[in-house]
Amino acid sequence: MADKWHLDEVALAMNGQKYWLWRAVDSNGDVLDTLVILGAINRPKIGSFRKLFKAFGQPRVVVTDKLRSYGGALKNLAPGIEHCSHKGINN
Known about the structure:
The protein is α/β, with parallel strands linked by helices. It has 2 helices and 5 strands; from the N terminus they run βββαβαβ. It has a single domain, classed as Nucleotidyltransferase, domain 5, CATH 3.30.420. The radius of gyration is 13 Å and the shape is globular.
């Protein structure tokens, strides 16, 4: 298990409705979790972070895009995790 995780989301349109696919991948390319949310994504689900931490422990570093709510959620749940956020850095 790698100690660096990449978190990303993408919008999908299915049957005229907008869904968001959210996934967490470690630096080895192993998918840790996926989540599909109907409607607007205004913040990552804190419950999803708790589920990931329980299953895999806490990573040393989390890399995300510029969605600001990732930082807030991570700061509340695990303040010791290093958070890198930059457009395109998690690709």
